[in-house]
Amino acid sequence: GVISKQRTDLNEQKKYFATDRTDDILNDEGKDLLATVKEFCENEVKEQCKAYDVSGEWPKEIYDKAMEMGLGSLEVPEEYGGIGIDRVTISALYEEMAKADAGFYTTIAASNLGLKPVLIAGTEEQKQWACDILVNGGYGAFCLTEPMAGSDPASCKTTAVKDGDEYVLNGRKCFITNGAVAGFYVVTAATDKALGNKGISAFLIPAGTPGLSAGNEENKMGIRTSNTTDVVLEDVRVPAGAMLGKEGEGFKVAMKTLDMARTFVGCGAVGVAQRCVDEAIAYAKQRVTFGKPIGKFEAIQFMIADMEIKTETARQMVVHSLTLMDKGLDYNKESAIAKCYSGDIAVEVALDAIQILGGYGYSREYPVEKLLRDAKIFQIYEGTNQIQRIVISRAVMGKF
Ligand code: CAA
Question: From its phi and psi, is residue 228 left (phi > 0), alpha (psi between -120 and 50) or beta?
């Protein structure tokens, strides 16, 4: 009857909260996928990326293999040729990627960030075109940030001027993940400067369009296996049909994109935090001081417990936000909390991991100093954690 049906639903729901491991809440297909991705990340990404972290080179061979496996198109909906898995499962896979190498995760998650505005506002044709690029092993890039418009993208200087059936774009975007490797670019530009955020429009532009080029490549502190460049637009002519949504809707499309993307940033941060916990435990069990492994001392046990509390709480916030998203419910505040909290704790947990490893933690011979460098970006990109606090306070206080 109705009640037993309700009880089954409740038990299903409880699964999200009663266990402390994402693996346990996945269905069989999700578990199989996770096992495959774990194996790939462990054998083909984790150790290999160490050398690329030093050189700063984009590890094309690793990405080629990952794209061949279909890891770049996990967020492509089934109707456009994707494998059609739920977001909680995707987050578990992204977490594995970030655990192995946060730059590797960033390349893939930011490519799917570029797809989101197309899925939010594109025509069927635009959606299919962009999805095909990811399914066939290509990348997307989301070009919102500018040298003088980071936290405040409404003040963008890039312009798009209508000329007959075309728009002509001029400007410079910066800090663009996949800037030099993307197959398509989503670019925001002012179509009417006088209208502020209501005068911004978004365009879907194929790589190779004359006038669009990758500029300066950033030499970054962390996530060094990801490609981050300026994207320069010099008299880039696109047909009017390249616009995503209507003229003046670009800012809102960008905001909706970021709402959706921020939880996925959270799961990247959780991956880094989990790796810190794993490295700290492994070290604490084998490093002997005063005649016993340091993990036998309460000082270390409590640090590890606090690291675990933070990591698991962040993971559950990510799962909660994605569950809301999968159910079609509002997630604006939850996504900002997931991103903000996970980014903050990733840095804290990385610092603790370094402390547990002591002098070795500070050495480049050991993996945890890289984890701190990688963790820091999660407090900065896709909206600084100060911006997340604006979003959260507005959600609970309203504008007054
Ligand atoms: N969904 C839908 N509409 C939204 C919205 C949302 N989440 N947020 C705002 N809007 C709408 C508002 O309703 C408003 O519309 P109306 O006037 O019709 O009501 C309009 O947009 C303007 O809103 P605000 O006045 O709130 O805008 P604001 O200028 O104060 O900015 C902000 C709000 C949240 C601070 C926003 O500017 C912001 O998110 N800034 C951070 C930008 C960011 O995250 N950049 C990261 C770039 S991506 C990146 O890092 C990628 C990478 O490579 C990894």
Answer: beta
Q: Is the C-beta atom of 251 inside 6 A of ligand 1?
A: yes
What does the pLDDT look like over 369-382, one tens digit per residue? 999 999 999 999 99
Is the minimum distance from the CB of 151 to ligand 1 under 6 angstroms? Answer: yes
CA dist 74 and 68 (Å) reads: 12
CA 186–ligand 1 middle distance (angstroms): 16
Q: Is 166 a catalytic residue?
A: no
Q: Which residue has the tokens 């916030």?
A: 317
Look up tokens 């547990």; give the residue.
356
DSSP 70-131: TGGGTTS-GGGT-----HHHHHHHHHHHHHH-HHHHHHHHHHHHHHHHHHHH--HHHHHHHH
Q: Tens of pLDDT along 1-10? A: 455 554 455 4
Q: What would the two tokens of residue 342 be?
A: 């996970």
Is 90 exceeded by the pLDDT of residue 311?
yes
